[in-house]
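Write out structure tokens for Xyloglucanase.
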Amino acid sequence: MAAGLLAGGPPALAAGAPEPATTLAADTYTWRNARIDGGGFVPGIVFNRSEKDLAYARTDIGGAYRWQEPTKSWTPLLDSVGWDHWGHTGVVSLASDSADPDRVYAAVGTYTNDWDPTNGAVLRSTDRGASWKKADLPFKLGGNMPGRGMGERLAVDPNRNSVLYLGAPSGNGLWRSTDAGANWSKVTSFPNPGNYAQDPSDTSGYASDNQGVVWVTFDESTGGAGTATKTVYVGVADKENAVYRSTDAGATWQRIAGQPTGHLAHKGVLDAENGYLYLAYSDTGGPYDGGKGRLYRYATATGAWTDISPVAEADTYYGFSGLTVDRQNPGTVMATAYSSWWPDTQIFRSTDSGGTWTQAWSYTSYPNRENRYTMDVSSSPWLTWGANPSPPEQTPKLGWMTEALEIDPFDSDRMMYGTGATVYGTENLTNWDDDTSFTITPMVRGLEETAVNDLISPPSGAPLISALGDVGGFRHTDLTKVPPMMFTQPNFTSTTSLDFAETDPDTVVRAGNLDSGPHIAFSTDNGAHWFAGTDPSGVSGGGTVAAAADGSRFVWSPQGAGVHHTTGFGTSWSASSGIPAGAVVESDRVDPKTFYGFKSGKFYVSTDGGATFTASAATGLPAGDSVRFKALPGAKGDIWLAGGASDGPYGLWHSTDSGATFTKLPNVDEADTVGFGKAAPGASYQTLFTSAEIDGVRGVFRSTDRGATWTRVNDDAHQWGWTGAAITGDPRVYGRVYVATNGRGVVYGDPSDTGGGTDPEEPEEPGPSGVCEVTYKVTNQWTDGFQADVRLTNTGSAAWNGWSLNWSFANGQKISQLWNGSPTQSGGAVTVRNTDWNGTVAAGSSVAFGFTATRSAANSAPTVFQLGGRTCAVR
């Protein structure tokens, strides 16, 4: 599996001291996610041990998040990762500093093989992930590699927090920083860099990589404040030598005697109060595989090892990985059978340090199950997958790939765990011990982790229909709400391509991947309901698909077979001639018999409904196949083509003669996507959008004059790594753009001067009653700009349902980007309204937002803040 609702995100990633953005956005946009809530693998959840409600989650390709307790939601922390370092959206480990809760660290990098062109890094923050500095490493890290659910590989010494350790993959051993993550060096005394690889014969380097050093755990009882912790435990991907210990603050290391062999230690969690190190073992590295496993307890004082597994090894068909201790009651331990895919994952709980166990569900008489829990997925109803399984399988499932499991260290009733699709949790966990039911719900709002393959925004019906990896795709009738279900009938594992009939938007087609079943489906009600088509012989994957302008016919270029065409809804297909297999296909948006294709530098045209194609004489197009093109609605033969590579033609091309000739735009250095949206007021030509490099700056750009000039609409705080799969404007809302990301879901932007779009749930002028308090703090400042954080507290006795905070700048400061709120500014007067997810503020609670802004020499702080006509206290 791959893998927030936001009105912004953190400021830009910095290599050293904070710097102003390379190029400020020429138009200030408000950015949000089209809500899906989850959708990918969450391999790690980390609670801070000294501050209540401070928690983080890491994803394998979609960045890191911080928990927002007032809204019970997550806020993204790595949206500032840019195109050239897209791999840093993969987070292999997180560490939250309990000695200084403002400090948090992330070890980033997506692949250790050549799929990721850059080395890994350790990011460090002194403001809980609002801003970052980076320490580059001389090796790669693998946030999306096998073994990514083991850990945590990154750890802060709880007694001397300037000391950190990082377990490295690929034989690179154990690394240490003694200056709070700024510099790193190899611990040369550590004896074992690991030797386990999932598949040593894999020539791609993906499954054959040595999974390395996989976790670090400190015994906080062996040190004092300011003194390095003496005893440190380290887990290694080596089935015969899995656990090492240092008793001299990392100077020397020894393999712990008497340890079990034959398995990998996925986790090592210490209960220092009772002197037990708990270990979860599996026969493989996960996160998908694992057929056998054990749980062990190591007595740190005596060196005794005890097998505390809840079931006999012969009865396991899974490994153990998720592992946590209740810090309020350290004798309470929980673990997961992470690789029990069928009928469900299993969670085990012990209240006597592993002496005896109970489990989340058990058989009464097979195949009937009795669950200790109930599941309420009404906030994310698609988690049922629209399934109706036979017992013992149930829907929704308790989970799969459950390698992250944490009991809140301040609240024995709260537990969170990650799955391959979401974060689940409960707030009445101790009901388990009373043999009464506890409730599991998604705790994932704000965490968006889908990889997006294609996007369409029809002129009528749903404003957005998406093609996604792993969860297929969704039809959004309201961008601020989670759709009730992904595409079903059939339910593709990944949807690879979407199209609709331009003059009949109720006709929609999608193509995708499915292990067993059809690879194409059709809808006649704008994607609300679907029915499967029939595959031509040999089809192995979705490829690309195009619908005729009037919906009368379709052209499909699937994997495993050549290009085909059909009339009607794909009950039979005929091979197309004159076009190579694997070509990207699109339709003319006016002439229902005209289709286009592209493959290996050649553009192809069909004027007979896709039966025959002819190669265009156009030259100078990209030689490779990293190309995306679209025909403009309402203008026959008007085509825009984006793509290329750095070693050849790369950019944006335009044709007005059905591809007979193309003109390369001289002002676009590189371009990877192209899309169209509603024309600007007073303009006759539709707005163009592209993910591109223009004037040396990578970003998302808009043109309202056919590409003659371009405006950057994102900024360095909102880059989302790689955005090269798809982009489209909205034909009904000027300026709105939908951007495909590879792990941060569908983000959409609206010009801030339009009030952030026309979503129906946005309050026009919220005005809560009651008194308020504001804290305004400048957190970073540079020559012509600054960053500030604002905290607004409800000091009244009633909850707010929507808020709108006003102030005035005295020195010409102008907001360039704001997150966790929706801003407008006229002169010095600023208004910040709530987003759709943080409008409810309980009495005594707070809501926070931040922004970057330009400034002149002076930068005096506002002194008067008003909320709903009332003046707030300033702190």
